[in-house]
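User: Study the shape:
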Amino acid sequence: MKKLLILFAILLSSYQLVTAQLTSLQNGGNKKAITGERIGLTDVVINYDRPGVKGREGKIWGGLVPYGFNDLGFGTSKAAPWRAGANENTTIEFSTDVKIDGHDLPKGKYGFSIALGKEESIAIFSKNSTSWGSFFYDSTQDALRITVRQQPMDKEVEWLKYEFINETPNSATIALEWENLMFPFKVEVDNNKIQLESFRRELHSSKGFQWEAFAQAAEWCADNNTNLEEGLTWANNAISGTFIGDKNFRTLSDKARILQLMGRTAEADTVMQQAMPLGTMVEVHTYARQLLTNKRYKEAAIVFRANYKKYPNVFTTNVGMARSLSSEGNYKEALKYATTALPQAPDPGNKTSVENMIEKLKEGKDIN
């Protein structure tokens, strides 16, 4: 019993020594960092540690960070790249498939490292994202290697950092910056593909129990003139899907837009004839404006006049009549409606717009 008590006391004291570790700064005073951004619908997250220059100007590249692949004297790797940071493995994670400088890379989390060159370097995305540093680097686990041309900077960066620059709706350049050099690589995403995959996934969730969700997906297809067949299916679900369908101006006009884009104009017009009685004054006016944009002047005039008959002598329909008559070249009559609409303007912006219309009509110019 005495021996058991002694053993228990030893184990307890050892446990206390192990668990009673206090939080302190990392060795070398390096800073732990997380940075990320969303490119389109793709989340990009980088975890890394930030070493400082600390008075070692001119001794970083080719010195502290050696050229090429090296035996670091620890671990299993005899040809290890630089860990592209400090301490733990630098990792970069993509929530969707991406292209890196034009090369495909599947979604996932990767260990990121760089083999330094004098003018060009090799950036490596490894399937191994859990090792400490690059001591256990194994080239057979590479998911992608790209050549990166480092660039001199006109500023000095004391603490290593990753920046997102040169951003567009579907791309961004990620740049590692430290001391006087920048290592950039471009990340691109296929927004259309990712958006459609997101719609399909979400429409199979609880969000798919509402007609508005199907309408939103159909409208996106029409707005981007893509995936029209599936967009038409979504539009039909919004109109007549079991339990959720709702035949209203929005759902019917969405279907008509897609049919029009598919070249099925007669079918689109038939659907819009069903939609017209269900539309508000503004919805019908907007539809007529779309017809004007598509240079379907006769159809637009019919819609503008029908809207005026239902909602006579108000700002929106007076402007509609002015546009309708102007499209027919009847500037004198159009001027009467525009002049009537001017004091009805609901805000300064609309007032200025009508004033410009009046000036054009006086000069005998079309306002559309």
